[in-house]
Design goal:
The protein is mainly α and about 325 residues long. It folds into 2 domains: about 80 residues, no CATH class; about 200 residues, Hypothetical protein af1432 (Orthogonal Bundle). The chain is about 55% helix and about 5% strand. The protein is built from 14 helices and 4 strands. Strands 1-2 form a two-stranded antiparallel ribbon. Strands 3-4 form a two-stranded parallel sheet. Strand 1 and strand 2 form a beta hairpin. Helix 5 runs antiparallel to helix 6, helix 5 packs across helix 13 and helix 6 packs across helix 11. The chain is elongated. The two termini are about 45 Å apart. InterPro entries: Cyclic_di-GMP/3'3'-cGAMP_PDE (IPR052020), GGDEF_dom (IPR000160), HD/PDEase_dom (IPR003607), HD_GYP_dom (IPR037522), Nucleotide_cyclase (IPR029787), Rev_trsase/Diguanyl_cyclase (IPR043128). It holds the Pfam family GGDEF. This is HD-GYP domain-containing protein.
Length: about 325
């Protein structure tokens, strides 16, 4: 897999015509697949750029890859859902007017830059993910918290029929929502007793601190609202701004429910995790006050459908069972 929707297939000891026939079989099979999302039905298209090493001269593997890339973009310019061979565009290029701009090279360069940009974005996100892991490693009880919140938030967004791109933004925001806690001292983050007013004020700064970390990366601008507002309450009693109802971005309202559910069902240094039934009761009780009722209903539908990974819940139960009784809440 080369990118979000691009794949490379290597076919050793295969003639170009045979490779083209295999590509056509793949194209036909995918074209027959109909994807349904609500009332919308979509057919898949496949554009293929094919390079035959026996007829295309090249100095190194990167050159072969670039020739396949150029053929792929020629297929897209030809209307998509077709196969273009690199040797075909080579012969066309020989017959072309040299005074014309080489749009294939331009398109190929744009594509390579886009791929490089995507690679750097992944590296940045992976680096922040490393910070999240370092944060959670400070307290064994918060291990995998962000990953679980990401799963729950994505499931809620899908249940609410949000576009796939929105689901991806929400999932990424969930993974990064607590990164600002990296600046909290252990004396606050791991405190077993009640927080003082000053300590609580420090904790309440973490959404803003998370946003400050993320603002240095423009490609995370779609995730920032969810992170900034995920501790707002539906009735306006949350933080950091006291936003109310739909003034709170939907992504943040979704993240709030996912975060609260995992916080309630997970074991913490200062208390044991609650049962699923107890957490559900708390979510229901929080409708119209802490939580958006529609988001709570969507999450309860996810739970009722049995979509939550039983292994996650079982791991939390194991942690609760291992705690001394005086730590269970």
């Amino acid at each position: 897999r080369l990118g979000g929707d691009e794949f490379a297939i290597l076919m050793p000891e295969t003639l170009g015509d045979h490779a083209a026939a295999a590509a056509e079989r793949i194209r036909v099979c995918l074209a027959a697949k109909v994807v349904e999302r609500g009332d919308l039905k979509m057919s898949l298209t496949t554009s293929v750029g094919l390079v035959d090493m026996s007829v295309t001269s090249a100095e190194n593997p990167d050159t072969f890859f670039n020739r396949a890339d150029q053929a792929l973009y020629a297929a897209k310019r030809a209307g998509r859902n077709c196969i273009v061979r690199a040797d075909e565009i080579d012969s066309e290029a020989d017959d072309s007017d040299d005074r014309e701009p080489d749009m294939e090279k331009v398109d190929s360069l744009c594509h390579q830059l886009a791929r490089l940009d995507a690679k750097f974005k992944r590296l940045f996100v992976d680096a922040i993910g490393g910070l999240v892991s370092a944060l959670e490693a400070r307290d064994i009880h918060t291990a995998n918290h962000s990953a679980k919140v990401r799963r729950y938030a994505a499931m809620i967004a899908q249940q609410m029929k949000l576009p796939e791109r929105a689901v991806q933004h929400i999932a990424r925001a969930a993974m990064l929502h607590d990164i600002g806690k990296i600046g909290l001292p252990d004396s606050v983050l791991l405190k077993e007793g009640a927080l003082t007013d000053e300590e609580w004020r420090l904790v309440q700064t973490h959404p803003v601190m998370s946003v400050r970390i993320m603002e240095g990366m423009a490609f995370l601008d779609q995730e920032i609202p969810a992170v900034r507002y995920h501790h707002e309450w539906y009735d306006g009693r949350g933080y950091p701004e006291g936003a109310v109802a739909t003034a709170i971005p939907l992504s943040a309202r979704i993240l709030a429910v996912a975060d609260a559910f995992d916080a309630m069902t997970s074991t913490r240094v200062y208390r044991g995790g609650r049962s699923i039934e107890n957490a559900v009761a708390e979510l229901r009780a929080g409708k119209d006050t802490q939580f958006d009722p529609a988001v709570v209903d969507a999450f309860l539908a996810v739970l009722a459908a049995g979509k939550i990974d039983e292994q996650i819940l079982q791991e939390e139960q194991t942690l609760r069972d291992a705690l001394p009784q005086n730590q269970l809440a």
